[in-house]
Design a protein that fits this description.
By secondary structure, this protein is of the alpha+beta class. It contains eleven helices and 14 strands. The two termini are 32 Å apart.
């Protein structure tokens, strides 16, 4: 199933604005008021605003490992390499040291994405020109290959928090998580992707935080309901149970496990079923949180629906006295329809 391009692009913006509150700041207000026909045009506009702001504040610097043959010792001497230099009659010392530099992975990703968007046909000429004006500020930053980016090395902290939104945009641009269909519309790509799943989880959590504070939305860690105290050397081997979204009100708790998959159901012999691993996971969360077996803790698998797919939308199962449900959040509709689905979940489990 596909949707109007304008609707789809607005939905992406809304999801990003909930997940990253920085989009609500004054610099980005102009973006919210525009209509975009091309998804990369939206990304180019957000990046231009965000990178311009970052340039004014100064590009993020980090310690970068360097290796260089020097006349004097700096940092750690590489003994074997230095011996090799002496054998070549070179009066140099091979040194390894850390340099506080703009030429780090964070800025390298920004630079290669800006290059990509400058050469993208579906970015307006005006925005391409704005992006070109930013490149001189990246003169000391290496232009890397997109397929060499180690995304799992990115760590956000107080002094680079503004980069989180920008690098999530870069990821969407460089990894083609958005495909164009035969009729020119857009759809989310059909595979499980850890990066996109985190954005999906964060969007849902922040939606409830903004609109339902009375439910105390949070991502909480569930303790194992251990009936006997185990050997302390063994307890470290128990996996951590971290919920995506937990809602609580009037003694009731709902644990939502957000899943971003191309297909929610899997073929199991002659029939389609829920993914067993997902069902086991949500059941474990519910039963370990409901230590008294009160039945007041429920679980919901919430899949992102991006394609036309038959899904058994119905009442939750009651397993061991606890309600365990599964449903989809249809992202291929106007955002008010997406919000309506999230509101229905609250009504279903808390009224």
């Amino acid at each position: 199933m596909t949707v109007d391009k304008g609707i789809f692009i607005r939905n992406i913006y809304y999801m990003l604005s909930y997940a990253f509150q920085i989009l609500k700041q004054e610099d980005y207000q102009q973006v919210a008021g525009e209509d975009f026909e091309k998804i990369h045009d939206l990304f180019a506009e957000i990046l231009e605003k965000g990178v311009s702001r970052q340039v004014k504040q100064g590009l993020y610097r980090a310690y970068v490992p360097m290796q260089e043959d020097l006349s004097v010792i700096r940092g750690k001497v590489q003994l074997n390499a230095t011996i090799a230099l002496k054998a070549q009659h070179k009066q140099k010392i091979a040194c390894e040291y850390d340099e506080f530099s703009e030429d780090n992975l964070y800025n390298q990703i920004l630079k290669v994405t800006i290059h990509h968007l400058i050469h993208a046909a579906d970015v307006s000429a005006e925005r391409r020109q704005k992006l070109r004006r930013l490149l001189p500020f990246f003169g000391n930053v290496t232009l890397i290959q997109p397929d060499h980016i180690a995304w799992n090395r990115l760590i956000y902290q107080r002094n680079n928090r503004n980069y989180e939104l920008l690098l999530n945009i870069c990821y969407l641009v460089l990894n083609s998580l958005l495909q164009t269909t035969e009729d020119g519309n857009y759809k989310l790509i059909e595979f499980s992707d850890e990066h996109m799943e985190r954005l999906y989880e964060r969007f849902i959590l922040e939606y409830y935080r903004q609109h339902h504070r009375e439910l105390h939305p949070n991502a909480v860690q569930v303790d194992w309901n251990l009936t006997e105290q185990p050997d302390q050397t063994m307890i470290q081997f128990l996996p951590t149970m971290q919920t995506d979204i937990t809602l609580q009100k009037d003694g009731k708790t709902l644990i939502i496990d957000a899943k971003y998959y191309g297909k929610s159901m899997v073929q199991n012999y002659s029939k389609e079923t829920l993914r067993s691993g997902h069902l086991y996971q949500i059941f474990a969360y519910v039963k370990n949180m409901d230590k008294d077996n009160s039945g007041n803790v429920s679980g919901l698998l919430l899949y992102a629906k991006t394609e036309e797919e038959l899904f058994p939308e119905g009442e939750p199962f009651v397993i061991g006295g606890s309600r365990i449900g599964a449903r989809t959040l249809d992202l291929n509709r106007e955002f008010r329809g997406i919000a309506g689905q999230l509101e229905d979940i609250v009504k279903h489990f808390f009224t």
